[in-house]
Backbone:
């Protein structure tokens, strides 16, 4: 298998990407025992290298789940390792007989000799043993009433709100644009100025866009993600000139991030 990327991307992983990552990792390593954990960069750990190895080595991996923008590795005896890939973190397939890839943070070797390495040229990827429960609702778990209540009390732009991980977890810059275009709401709209009817449509658009992206990425990449994970974008991207309905795509900066939208999207202010 060698140092082959399981996932290749150029932007921060968002909810659909991470959901697919979790499913692939579960399929590939579920039921296998972690024989060796190699730590190459320990600064981001919330315990010592020796303590982490003691907690996880020789334990079976039960499943990998996504929670917000993190992956959670569930090992036997209720041991959970949370992993946030941050901006440039990636996962690479590795084998015991091969050298580790450049910029390795952690390397997991399972029974059978295969595993994966977490790499990050910026050294920002953050592993956390026993991550605390996060009570901020996940974008795919929040109820409609909770979402409507969230919008009513926020005066910031709807794009900033969708990306605010302290208000709603999982959505980033790319899918924020896609969701707002689907709902035909301008990203510049003030959250609490959006009428209830359109707010309900926005709620439906979150589920529709994110779940469709998960299906598209899964179908396209199978068990190994080797291509761009933004191939399915309809409006987000400097290379996209027109929306699927033929409208010219505009670009602006919101919250310091490049935002893409069209005049089809209504501004509520």
Residues:
């Amino acid at each position: 298998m060698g140092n082959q990327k399981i996932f290749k991307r150029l932007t921060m992983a968002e909810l659909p990407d991470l959901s697919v990552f979790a499913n692939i990792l579960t399929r590939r390593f579920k039921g296998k025992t972690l024989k060796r954990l190699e730590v190459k960069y320990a600064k981001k750990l919330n315990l010592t290298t020796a303590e982490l190895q003691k907690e996880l080595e020789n334990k079976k991996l039960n499943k990998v789940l996504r929670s917000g923008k993190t992956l959670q590795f569930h090992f036997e005896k209720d041991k959970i390792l949370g992993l946030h890939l941050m901006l440039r973190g990636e996962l690479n397939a590795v084998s015991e007989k091969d050298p580790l890839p450049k910029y390795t943070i952690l390397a997991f070797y399972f029974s059978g000799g295969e595993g994966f390495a977490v790499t990050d040229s910026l050294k920002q990827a953050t592993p956390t043993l026993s991550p605390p429960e996060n009570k901020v609702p996940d974008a795919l778990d929040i109820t409609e009433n909770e979402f409507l209540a969230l919008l009513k009390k926020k005066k910031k732009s709807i794009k900033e709100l969708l990306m605010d991980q302290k208000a709603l977890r999982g959505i980033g810059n790319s899918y924020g644009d896609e969701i707002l275009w689907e709902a035909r709401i301008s990203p510049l709209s003030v959250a609490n100025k959006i009428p209830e009817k359109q707010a309900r449509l926005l709620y439906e658009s979150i589920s529709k866009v994110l779940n469709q992206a998960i299906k598209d990425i899964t179908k396209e990449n199978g068990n190994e993600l080797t291509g761009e994970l933004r191939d399915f974008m309809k409006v987000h991207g400097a290379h996209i000139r027109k929306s699927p309905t033929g409208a010219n795509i505009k670009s602006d900066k919101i919250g310091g991030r490049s935002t893409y939208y069209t005049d089809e999207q209504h501004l509520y202010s």
